[in-house]
Amino acid sequence: MDDIRSSPDRDLVDAVLANRPGAFERLVREYQGLCWHIIQRMVRNPEDARELCQDTFLRVHQCLHQYRYESALKSWIGRIAFTIALRHLQHKRIPLVDSSDDEGESRVENIGDGFDLEAACVDEETARHLHEAIEALPPLQRTLLTLYYLEETPIPEIARITGMATGTIKSHLFRSRLRLRDALETRTGVAA
After folding, report:
1. pTM of the model
2. For 53-77, how does the pLDDT look when each residue is reduced to its tens digit (9 = 90+)?
3. How far apart are CA 98 and CA 94, in angstroms?
């Protein structure tokens, strides 16, 4: 806990709570990409995503005094963004996962399956197919892939953001990668 007392998170939070000029804007700049990635991957509607990002930072501003430094500020803000997007999807009655994904919710400890996403994106056509396959995934799986691969968020931190068990996250990542591999093999006609 000693490192948290003098951490950049604490300095930024203290500056915002003290109403220092530009502090909240700095917080927004620092975390707007994370917020956008989470919300856009879940709701897929740019206008809704912009509105939900604004709602997220409004909530952050209103509740920042409740932040207790028990996790990274990134996790805390990510959790707020995830919760706001989740409520939006629930309100619109959009399922988070395919019903077929819920069957036999197995825990997968190793998310590797031998499929190399980077190598699969060597050419533009394959990259386009990969993007289309990611967009076809259910909201939760798109979001988990984004956090893990684009934001490079460790699984324990994703667990804090989503409130999900690490085994469940690993299982979703594993199944998502399998679906992406199958989609790429189908679209390109080449075994990945």
Report:
1. 0.75
2. 999 999 999 999 999 998 899 999 9
3. 10
